[in-house]
Specification:
By secondary structure, the protein is an alpha/beta fold. It has 20 helices and 14 strands. The chain has a five-stranded parallel β-sheet with strand order 2-1-3-4-5, with helices on both faces. A five-stranded parallel β-sheet has the order 7-8-11-6-12. The C terminus is likely disordered.
C-alpha cells in the first residue's frame, strides 16, 4: 500500500455526514480523501488550499437547495475551472435521466444513483482514473481536417514565434488551453516553463499574490517570501485563462507587466522583471466588457495583439468522428478493452448532435461507451442515453435590442403602474426586476455564476456584488425570493 503522501487525492462532496464518513473511511485506505458538505466548502478547498483532486465524488443536491440539482451542476463547473483534468463522478439522489445527461454534458465522467455499493464505487473510481489525459498525443493537440480547424492550425503556427500577447476566445470545453499549449510547443520557448492560471478559479483577494508573489510578512499567513507566476514563468509562457474575471483593480498591474515587463511582489518596493510571453483566454465578449466599463480598454488592446477564435465542436463537421475515433482508440488501449463500434444510424445521430459541452463532453462520451460497450456495436438508443438532448445550444447570434413594439409594451406597463398604484417606488420596482432577471439567469445557467453573468451581460464579480446588495436590502417575508 502506498504511503499517505503518495495516495491519489480524492474529494467527496455530500451534505449527508453518514455517507461522507462511510465513504471517507472505505476509500481512505487507497486515497487521500478530502471532504466538504457544501459547494462553498468545496470551492474553498480548491481555491484557498490549492486542492487539485484526481477525482471528485459529488452529490447534486447540496445546500441551500438540497432537493434541486443546481448547486451540484455549478460545482461541476467550479471544479473543472480549477482543475480541468479532474475526473468527476456524480453520486446523487437527484437521479432522473435529464439530470444525469446534463451532469455528463457539463463534464462529469460518470453518474451513479444513490444508494450505491461502496465496493462498486471503488472499482468505478479505479476504472475512471485509469483513463489518462490524451492532449499530448499530437504535436499541436489538434485532430481534424475541417476548414475551421485548418484555419486554427495556421493561426497557431503563424503566431507561435511572436513575443506578443495572444487572446484566445471560445466556448467552455472547446479546447482553449490546448491552443495555448500549442502556441508554446510550436515556439522557440518550447523548452522553457509553461504555467497556466485560471483567473476564475481563485479568490479575488489571492490573485495579486498568485501572479506577482509576496514578501515575508506582507499579509497574515505570509510566513516567508514567495515568487508568483510571472517570476516562475521566467522567459517561458504564462497562460491566463478566463482573463475576463481578473479584478478591475488588478488590471493596471497586469498592463504594466505587458508594457515594460515590470512588477512588484506584495510588500516590496523594488521592481522585478519578467520576459514571459502572456497568452490569455476567455469565453466572454471582452469588447462588450470594455464598452460597459468592466474591463480596461488599454488592457484589452494590449492582450489582443493577436486574437484566435476556437471553433465549437458543432462546427467541425466530420472531425467529430475523427475525434471520437481518437478517444476511442486511446481509452480502449489504456483499459485493455476491445473497441466499440457505432452503428450507421448512431453515427448519423452523433453528427447531428450539437455538443453543448464541446470536446470535453465528447471525450467523456468516448470513455463511457468504451466502458459499457467494449467489443460491441452501439446503436442509436445506447448513444442517445449519453447525450444532453434538452440543453443543446441554440444557433449562435447576439440577442437583439428591444424593438419599437417591445418598447411600446413596456411603456404601457409603466403607464398602468403609475396611474393605478398610489405609492409607486421606482427603486423598489427596479430592484424587483433586477432580482427576477438574476434568478432567471441562475436557473438557466443551473447556478453556474460565470454563465449566469454572461447571460446578464455583466462581470461575475459584478453579479456577486448585485446579489449581495439585494440580499442586504431585502426584508424577510413569505413572498420574497431567496438567492
Amino acid at each position: 500500500m502506498n504511503s499517505p503522501q503518495e495516495k491519489t487525492p480524492l474529494l467527496i462532496v455530500d451534505d449527508d455526514p453518514l455517507i461522507v464518513d462511510a465513504l471517507g473511511y472505505f476509500l481512505g485506505r487507497e486515497y487521500a480523501v478530502s471532504t466538504a458538505a457544501t459547494r462553498s466548502e468545496a470551492v474553498k478547498l480548491l481555491r484557498e488550499r490549492g486542492l487539485a483532486p484526481a477525482l471528485a465524488l459529488i452529490d447534486l443536491g447540496l445546500p441551500p437547495t438540497p432537493h434541486r440539482p443546481d448547486e451540484g451542476f455549478a460545482l461541476i463547473a467550479d471544479i473543472l475551472a480549477h482543475a480541468p483534468e479532474t475526473r468527476i463522478v456524480v453520486l446523487s439522489g437527484q437521479s432522473d435521466e435529464p439530470n444525469a445527461r446534463h451532469a455528463r454534458a457539463l463534464g462529469a465522467t460518470e453518474f451513479v444513483a444513490k444508494p450505491a455499493d461502496p465496493e462498486m464505487l471503488r472499482q468505478l473510481i479505479q476504472r475512471v482514473l485509469s483513463f489518462r489525459d490524451t492532449s499530448t498525443v499530437v504535436e499541436d493537440g489538434l485532430i481534424g481536417v475541417s476548414e475551421p480547424l485548418q484555419k486554427l492550425r495556421a493561426q497557431l503556427r503563424q503566431f507561435a514565434g511572436s513575443p506578443f500577447p495572444v487572446l484566445i476566445e471560445g466556448e467552455s470545453g472547446s479546447g482553449k488551453e490546448l491552443a495555448a499549449v500549442a502556441l508554446h510547443r510550436l515556439s522557440e520557448r518550447a523548452a522553457k516553463p509553461y504555467l497556466a492560471l485560471n483567473c476564475a478559479a481563485i479568490s479575488p483577494n489571492l490573485v495579486e499574490a498568485t501572479l506577482f508573489g509576496h514578501a515575508k510578512g506582507a499579509f497574515t499567513g505570509a510566513s516567508g517570501p514567495r515568487a508568483g507566476y510571472f517570476e516562475d514563468a521566467s522567459d517561458g509562457t504564462l497562460f491566463l485563462d478566463e482573463i475576463g474575471e481578473l479584478p478591475l483593480d488588478l488590471q493596471p498591474k497586469l498592463l504594466r507587466v505587458l508594457e515594460n515587463g515590470e512588477f512588484q511582489r506584495i510588500g516590496e518596493t523594488h521592481a522585478r522583471r519578467s520576459s514571459a510571453r502572456v497568452v490569455t483566454a476567455t469565453n466572454r465578449d471582452l469588447r462588450k466588457e470594455v464598452r460597459e466599463g468592466r474591463f480596461r480598454a488599454d488592457l484589452y488592446h494590449r492582450l489582443s495583439v493577436f486574437t484566435i477564435s476556437i471553433p465549437p465542436l458543432r462546427d467541425l463537421g466530420d472531425d467529430r468522428m475523427l475525434l471520437l475515433e481518437h478517444f476511442r482508440s486511446i481509452y480502449a488501449a489504456q483499459a485493455n478493452l476491445q473497441l466499440f463500434q457505432l452503428a450507421a444510424a448512431a453515427s448519423k445521430r452523433l453528427l447531428a448532435y450539437s455538443f453543448p459541452g464541446n470536446v470535453r463532453e465528447l471525450r467523456n462520451i468516448a470513455i463511457r461507451l468504451t466502458t459499457k460497450y467494449a467489443g460491441r456495436e452501439v446503436g442509436v438508443d445506447e448513444l442517445e442515453a449519453e447525450l444532453d438532448v434538452g440543453n443543446e445550444p441554440r444557433a449562435s447570434g447576439i440577442a437583439p435590442t428591444p424593438t419599437l413594439a417591445g418598447r411600446a409594451e413596456l411603456m404601457a406597463i409603466a403607464l398602468n403602474d403609475l396611474q393605478t398604484r398610489h405609492e409607486f417606488n421606482l427603486d423598489a420596482t427596479l430592484r424587483l426586476w433586477e432580482e427576477a432577471y438574476i434568478e432567471a439567469a441562475q436557473q438557466l445557467a443551473h447556478n453556474n455564476m460565470s454563465q449566469a453573468a454572461r447571460l446578464l451581460g455583466v462581470n461575475r464579480t459584478t453579479l456577486y456584488n448585485r446579489i449581495d446588495a439585494l440580499t442586504r436590502e431585502k426584508r424577510p417575508g413569505p413572498n420574497r425570493s431567496l438567492f
